[in-house]
Amino acid sequence: MDVELAEIRDFLAEHAPFDALPADVLDRLPARCTVSYARRGTVVLRPGDRGDRLYLVRSGAVDITDDGHLVDRVGAGGGFGMSALVEHVPTRYAATAREDTLLLELPQPDFDALVAEHPSVAVHFAATHHGRITAAIAQLQAPARGSAVLKTSVRDLLRVDPVSVAPSATVAEGARVMTEAGVSSLLVMDGAALLGIVTDRDLRRRVLAAGVAPDRPVQEVMTPDPVTLPAQALALEAMLEMTGRNIHHLPVVEDGRVLGLVTTTDLVRLERSNPVYVVADVQRQADVAGVVEQAARIPAVVGQLVREDASAADVGRVVAALTDALTRRLVVLAESALGPAPGRYAWAALGSAAREEQGLGGDQDHALVLADDADPSDPWWAALAERVTEGLEACGLPRCDGDVMATNPRWRLRVGGWRVQFGRWSDEPAPDAVLQAAIFYDMRAVHGDADLVEGLRAEVVPLGGRSDLLLAHLTAQAARMRPPIGFFRGFVLEDAGEHRDTLDLKRGIAAIVQLARVHALRARSTALGTGARLTAARDAGLIAAEAATDLTDALELLSYLRLRHQAAQVAAGEAPDNHLDPRRLGSLDRRHLRDAFAIVRAAQHGLSSRSPQVG
Fold it and tell me: For residue 71, which of 124, 128, 109 has the smallest C-alpha distance?
């Protein structure tokens, strides 16, 4: 090998993914590369160019831009042009030399051969660098009005149409209108013109206390020319106006038209949408009806968090905490009605609730883990399960279609019984039971003796990690969870039913969850969250650091888009679901969504190519 090729080999050996290639492959690779030079400002790739090679920056730097916006800066050892190579489509980004740059170029046929022999290279170069999708997440999560709860627009606080009377209406008529509408203030309008406002305090002070006859015109007791706020004003501004002027009602206007009234009660209610307040209020409820009433606040909490700068991971934890609070209170109320439990036990959440990755519109998944000296046949357990499940259903969490709930006797077991069940899944996993196994490896104690669940998981996770057969079945299941994207990066839309022409975001999310679950089992990790599982797999050397980051970012992007979609549905009075119409997304959002799906698909390919097959 001559000196120049040797230098190229040494350079490649210092950078991923080439540093993980066998020595003989690395020895042959430099001869397949060509060297080119790009002066500062040279456009190396333009959007729409047909990529026929992989570019690697040997020295210098290249800016990757999207519609003029910088999305990545590639330095020495970095690559670009790979999405066009991997997916056989025109490049979507521009690549411009930021400074005088030396490039290594690997032609398409040699790249394809390398990927076919070493799938880890494809995983590394899948879709786009994680920085690009991270930037997309940051863009999506830019808060519309800042991070404080009180930085909501006053438009978002309006709940009812304005209640008004004409200036000639009598005081008695005005009081009757207020009573019938159930409001504490009344606008005095001359057509579309706002003349004044009358509040319940005005009626007390200016009518009753002053001895004004109820048949006098309301305009005589109104506050004329009231202070107003524009619809785009912040709730914080409303609070400052109210406290500064010692008033409790502010009309909201837009283009000279009155939209409604904001009251101090609205501001208090807004602050009470803080999850901490909701949890505290749930814990104070004395009956199931009260718990149900508090549960109705959860969609508003999620909507508020989405409008602020909360990440999907943070929102998932908040929803899980609120669901936990509902569950705990329902369990305590059931215990009060049924009497003391006939043994030690733990109420366990399963699936997304256990992973603390919930959105809106999910169903129930739970189980009971009993101490070994408890009697599972005691009717107390069945009564507890039914009361809590019925209560959660009333709170808006439907029962599981697959009957994975504590109401099913199969999922009310002693620790020893659970140990046997997990052993069956590990030793002789029937294909139709693999889904159950996946759900139950996501188990977290919500109420009761948490040690029962933690001790059980400490035993059964290593058991599953040693079972090649179970891992093969779970791997095959992960490979079948195809994200909704075609070979040429087109979205695969539902073609029938009520969700026709929409994307099922849950397909992409579930694929990442399953990939992380398999990797974590291989690592014998008891981590529950998908991000924590990917980190554990990375630390165990089972997945490349960049691939773990890419998958974590893809999960965040998909989950955030789903939450934003669900929050909009709730605001529109619709039931939340996972089906997003891609036509409602901007071009950049659609592009980032494709990138996320491509990352998932590449990770599935990498996992299946390294895993034993089910025989």
Answer: 128
